[in-house]
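Work Package 3 (structural annotation) set out to generate three-dimensional models for the target panel prioritized at the project kickoff. During this period the team completed the workflow that converts sequence records into discrete structure tokens, so that structures can be stored uniformly alongside our sequence database. As a representative example, we reproduce one entry of 633 residues exactly as it appears in the project archive.
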Amino acid sequence: MRQAEAAELRRELRGFLSAAIAAGEYDPAAGSFGPADPRFAARLGARGWLGTCWSRALGGQEGSALDRHVIAEELIAHGAPLRASWVAEWLAGPLLLAAGTPEQQRELLPRFAAGRLSACIGLTEAATEAALPGSGAPRCLARPDRGGWRLGGRCRLVGDPLGRLVLLARTGDDQGPGLSLFLVDLALPGIAPLGADLLAFDGVFLAGDRLLGPPEAGLAIWREVAGIARGAPGGWLRHLPLLAALAAADGPAEAEPVLGRLLAGCATLQAMGLARAGRAAPGLAALAAAEAEAIPAALHRLLPDEARPVPAEPPPLLPPVPGPRRPARPPHPLAAETARLLDGRFSSGFDPDLWAALEDGPVLRAALPPELGGDGEGLPGLLAIAEAAGAAGAPLPIAETLLGHHVLALAGLAPPIGPLTLGPVLPGDSPGFGQGLLAGRLHRLPWARHASAAVIVLEGRRTVLAGRPAIGAEGRNGAGEPRDLVLLEEMPVLAAGEPGTGLGPGELRALGAVFRAAAMLGATGRLAGHRRSRALAAAARFALRRAARAPGRFAIACARLRVHAAAEAALAIPGQDPALARRIAAWSGEFGTESGWARWLGRRARRAGAAGLWPLIADPGRMPDETEETDDE
């Protein structure tokens, strides 16, 4: 689905839901997984918003998995009641599509798609024991009996005991998979509830045509469907009203950086969910579950009892579903070449020989246009190189030189040979330029004492290429890398771009922030990790790639904050390399601090307000002003 089509679908849904709320058809404060509302399910079915990606012959609209994901997002973001249709839409219907006979599909899918029939899932043994180790997972047996099957035992419910049950029961030997899927009418005699989430079966007879799919293949079918369903947005998006309460105008000021971090997490999860719609994503599901818990915890810390909305009910609980490990994405060729050239070549400071080796290869020509002997790489490739350089830890201005080449190319200026520095780095610095001369001072320019030239960005989106920096005072960051005071009056001007053709100082600092984030992510990858830190690193990499494709300030802020969260989780593991820790900490304070980016993003959310928070997350066209500065750098 193209972005324009998704935007039109969102507009249609929002109009319908706004009208339904105004007419009092449902209370959005109750959340999507509060009391079941069969009448509203029928209204959704009549609009074609249930079973959307099923064939028209089976009641659907022949849409895509992305259509279904967008519809789910909008419904949950507006608190629409989904309890009566959720399991049929995300689990029972897909199980029928995956394994049902044409007769079974025609019997049930049109009724699910119309919102006229609910469904639930019954799990037993292997499907639940991963989530409930040693707890005596329920056991349900199905034995052949006069042309059908006889059920006995118990199952754990996913969803409410309504409509049709898709049951996973043991039909084979006690050893091995031996589990089969069945369609069960809950009105049959011999079925009784045991508490809130268990059903008991006492000699329940099922006809032979109630077997769903091949016998003893049920567990594999279930895991495939449930793995995709765990990527649905319900787990975290149900907490949007809590986030909106923090964004309210009367919220405490100390909530702004917390709100910014939470917003970065939600925006990244939302984009990851859309990108992986229709595919199993166990890592995303685990990350979403962990991130969702942070929202009510923050609300509890920051808002008084009377100002806190009630947390929404969770969607029907799915146990963890093991998925196949996806092969690692091969590194960018230039990132691999960077790693090869830097492998094992460390020194205590700038190494001219190593720099010369890099200049002889393609790495430092990556941003140059082909007519200058380069590859014309865009930001995704340049950031991949910066990440590889950050992982190698070589003390060289690789990121600064690549960014300098990129900035010069945007201004139509040819880059010089040799290492570059660039600025201004700090928002208080404001270089002047008149009659062909630069004026002012720039603080903490990276690697200035080793640079052969400097790229200076001025107000009015004008770029100046100056000669070798004149050092007023030498300094270093916490990792020992040069960060120097530069005297502009003593530097020759080599070339100047036309006003309005390049970047502004704020845009330069934003790009510098994303290059630093790439280096931090590379260094973080060398730290020992556990499952959560690896999941956070995967989310950070996704956010970084998203910012590389569309480098607006909102996306860059999200990437910077997600990388910091990944690094923080990895550094919390005992026994990490102190040199790596110092490097990551030093980079995290440059081109804007983590807290400054978090406060900026929190203020954007505060400005959007409760009503504008979801459009801020979901609609690229509603992103904040990209020319605004970060705060408290």
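The longest helix spans residues 594-618.
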